[in-house]
Amino acid sequence: MRRQVSFFAASLSSPRRTGALAPSSGMLGRAMARAAGASDPAKILEFGPGTGTVTSKLIEAGAREENLTLVELNPVFAHLLADRFPLARVISGEALAVAEALRQERTMFSSVVSSLPCMNFPHEFRENLLVKSMELLQPGRPLVQFTYSLAPPLPKLPTVRVTRTRRIWANMPPAVVWSYRIRLGSGQGEERGENAG
Which domain of life is it from (predicted)? Predict the structure, then answer.
């Protein structure tokens, strides 16, 4: 109940930054965990975890709590996450600034999982999020981003391969999970994942 109250309070006070009127569903969280390849050795960076719905699904899928870095701008959510996931590294701050700090630390991740409301931000922010995330990823590993929009949440770059899932109708609003990976070979254009429709 505390998580729901915190989420709705944040939604009312800053709807553009929260980006939703309800927390992500378990089904969306599981889809993101599958796309991220969450497993025991995975080191995962999560942007905008909110109250931790996706975080909990990453752990259920096999990721170890101590291998998670959670970046949350809302200080109420950040405090809630620190209580809920005491072994994770919780950073209260803005995603792009934290990404740059992690790059300077030379910290690398198995995947980046983002629940940021990207369509609420300008093109420059979204392109920077994509580029900075790619700098933090091990070769061939994904940035996973969901959106409610019909359009891709992040801009297309020629060096990045893109896949997506079918629309997840059980989420409210219905959502699509997109994955972005640096091309390791010549590759082809945008592709759809095994579950795409």
Answer: Bacteria
